[in-house]
Amino acid sequence: MPDRRLAQELPPGDIDPALLGEAADWLVRFQSGDDSVRTRRAFERWRAQSPAHAAAWRRAETVLDTFRRVPADVGRRTLGGLARPGRRRALHALGLATVATPAAWLAWRHQPWVAWRADLATATGEQRRLTLDDGTQLVLDTGTAVNVAFTAGERRLRLIRGEILVTTAEDPAPQPRPFVVETAEGRLRPLGTRFSVRQGAYESRVAVLEGAVEIVTTGGARRTLAAGEQAGFGTDRIGDAKPADASAALWAQGMLVARDMPLAALLAELGRYRPGVLRCHPAVADLRVSGAFPLTDVDASLDLLVRTRPLALRRLTRYWVSVEPRAQSATRMP
Which CATH fold would you assign to the domain 254-328? Predict the structure, then answer.
């Protein structure tokens, strides 16, 4: 096996695109199950030809790592749904460009094994409504995982990932128990309320629709939000309270309301409700968008975007979609 240090001798930009294409072909062969001794020996001979070949393979391994971060069935569908030239083109683009990882994929990377074992969970694009034992109404958004622990002394929800909408009920127990929602950054204590909580990669966010919610971070910061307020918080800080209105929870009704939202942010939200990659071209990332977009049919929302804005959709497969400037719809990914 060649010394992997050889691959580090060439800067990424100096790798011959033709070699990157050959590396992509090898990656596709291995991913499709062709892993025989004969294939492996041929691959080793190819990789050992020069430091440039080794560097190209290291780039291909980076692509493989990207696919390993997503659910296996999505990765297989993305590769399997492409003809061979399309697979090479997609992998080649990944090898040459910096592709923003969608939030939905990041969610899988965030404590994935804990999420799979959660008491309550939803898949990508799924929402779930239920009533807890105490009468509390709970709505789970797409890609959400929650643990429930009701004891004699406490009613506790642990939000592992995703977003929930909580409408608390009066505890029917003889001795009323406090209701607590935990996130990675702290604890929320609702005071007879309706509120939403979202677990992000680096912070949690709460929006209070009715009543009030007390936030206590793991580092001891404390603040109470009233109805109509929302704030993000980390382990040792709580952000400034900002206005929150009823549209903050319209996701529970299958609708996303955008008000002068950057296109990149809008697509990041819509991408949470569909499998695969939903990419925003950098040239239109800052385009401001307002409107109401259905979450139950993200493809319909994308069609609405391209009909009403100077945008075009570029699809490698159903699971790999790029929103681009209309004039550049036929150009290669940067």
Answer: Phage tail protein beta-alpha-beta fold (3.55.50)
CA 37 to each of CA 34, 53, 57, 58, 294: distance values in angstroms, whole numbers, following the listed order: 9, 20, 18, 21, 50
Q: Which pTM does this prediction carry?
A: 0.64
- What lies within 8 Å, CB to CB, of 39 at 6+ separation is 29, 30
For domain 110-249, which architecture applies? Sandwich (2.60)
Task: Give the tens place of pLDDT for each residue, 217-264.
Answer: 999 999 999 999 999 999 999 999 999 876 778 899 888 888 889 999
Q: What is the pLDDT of residues 143-191, one digit of tens each?
A: 999 999 999 999 999 999 999 999 999 999 899 999 999 999 999 999 8
Q: For CATH 2.60.120.1440, list the domain ranges present in the chain.
A: 110-249
Q: What does DSSP assign to residue 238?
A: B
258 and 290 Cβ atoms separated by less than 8 Å? yes
Query: Rounded to the nearest 10 degrees, what angle do helices 263-271 and 298-308 cross at?
Result: 160
Task: List, by residue range, all CATH 3.55.50.30 domains of the chain.
Answer: 254-328
**Which residue's entry shows tokens 């139950």?**
296
* Helix, strand, coil fractions of the chain, as percent rounded to 5: 35, 30, 30
92: nearest Cα among 56, 142, 131: 56
